[in-house]
């Protein structure tokens, strides 16, 4: 299912090791861990059975 990122903390590139994730809140209130490059207002695909991030969706 596709969700819009409603809340996301900003991280500076290079602050952490490869593969690091951060929690975000979607427009429906779902909390999902995503890669650090995901920003607020982006759309993401989430597996609703596991609530895991799958990929970023381009428009």
Which structural category fits the helices and strands?
A: mainly beta
Please name the CATH architecture. Beta Barrel
Mean pLDDT: 90
CATH homologous superfamily, by name? Nucleic acid-binding proteins
* Main sheet characteristics: 5 strands, antiparallel
Order of helices and strands: EEEEE
CATH C-level class is Mainly Beta
Task: State the helicity in percent bands.
Answer: under 10%
Separation, N- and C-terminal Cα atoms = 14 Å
Q: How many E strands?
A: 5
* Widest sheet: strand ordering: 3-2-1-4-5
Number of helices: 0
How many discrete domains? 1
Beta-strand content estimate: over 45%
Which residues sit in consecutive blocks of at least 5 with pLDDT less than 50?
none
Globally, the shape reads: globular
Query: What's the CATH topology label?
Result: OB fold (Dihydrolipoamide Acetyltransferase, E2P)
Q: What is the C-alpha radius of gyration, as a whole number of Å?
A: 11 Å
Describe the model.
With 59 residues, the protein is mainly β. Helices cover 0% and strands 49% of the residues. It has no helices and 5 strands. Strands 3-2-1-4-5 form a 5-stranded antiparallel sheet, with no helix packed on it. The protein is globular, with a radius of gyration of 11 Å.
Distinctive features:
49% strand, OB fold (Dihydrolipoamide Acetyltransferase, E2P), globular, 5-stranded antiparallel β-sheet, mainly beta, 59 residues, 0% helix
């Amino acid at each position: 299912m596709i969700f819009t990122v409603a809340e996301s903390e900003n991280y500076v590139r290079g602050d952490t090791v490869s593969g690091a994730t951060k929690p975000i809140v979607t427009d429906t209130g779902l909390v999902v861990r995503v890669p650090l490059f995901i920003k607020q207002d982006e759309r993401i695909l989430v597996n609703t059975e596991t609530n895991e991030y799958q990929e970023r969706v381009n428009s």
